[in-house]
Design a protein that fits this description.
About 30% of the residues lie in helices and about 35% in strands. By secondary structure, it is of the alpha+beta class. It has one domain: GMP Synthetase, Chain A, domain 3 (2-Layer Sandwich). Strands 1-2-3-4-5 form a five-stranded mixed β-sheet. Strand 1 and strand 2 form a beta hairpin.
Length: about 110
Amino acid sequence: MEDRCARESKEYTKKNCPVKIDNNTTLDSLTFERETHTLHYYYKLTGFADQDGVLEKVDAVTVLKNELKNTTTLRVYKENKYRFAYTYRSEKDPSKIMLEVVFTDKDY
């Protein structure tokens, strides 16, 4: 399972990233952290979303959690109790993390 996850995340990043999710969000990469069984999504925020407080205002953590609960494409990973991490960085200041959250099987 771990080898599959590592391979699929690497292939997805190579084939698809960066991919624009919406006008203000780009998925830069997807990685698999084998030691913690974590699929880690790295995003870049631009425009309006690249401001302090915007993600809190739209309750991004709850939105992400609900999307994770409802998605079927990650079913096999959820069944194996994998973790899902999301990191959002500022385009204006790439060293600035706008949001970082990790969900475990207790969250979904």
